[in-house]
């Protein structure tokens, strides 16, 4: 997995980088086909924003979250990403099961 973390109007400190990396590794370890992950952390006035784009085989999953605290925004982002990846994983497995059923029926 290739992980890229960038900051817009915020310095990505080693502590922040480690926090994002550890949170994302927990979520992405459940899904095998992740090739690249891009994270953008930004600050706009009083709003802290975190965005992630996860490139999986056949699809790009984009999630964003904002909060008054950047760490809270990252936590919310990881929760949303986990739901999106589970949803995608279920769709892929359902399609493969349907294909197996069609092959068995023929």
Give a written overview of the molecule.
- The termini are far apart.
- With 106 residues, this protein is of the alpha+beta class.
- It is built from two helices and four strands.
- The protein has one domain: Ribosome hibernation promotion factor-like (Double Stranded RNA Binding Domain).
Helix content percent band: 40-55%
Number of structural units classed as domains: 1
Q: Kindly identify the CATH topology.
A: Double Stranded RNA Binding Domain
Largest sheet: 4 strands, mixed
CATH class: Alpha Beta
The strand count comes to 4
Strand order of the largest sheet: 1-2-3-4
Task: Indicate the topology.
Blueprint lengths: L1 E7 L5 H15 L5 E11 L2 E10 L2 E9 L2 H36 L1
Parallel strand pairs: 1-2
Antiparallel strand pairs: 2-3, 3-4
Helix pairs in contact: 1-2
Output the keywords:
48% helix, four-stranded mixed sheet, 106 residues, alpha+beta
Quick take:
48% of the residues lie in helices and 35% in strands. The chain is an alpha+beta fold and 106 residues long. A four-stranded mixed beta sheet has the order 1-2-3-4, with helices on one face.
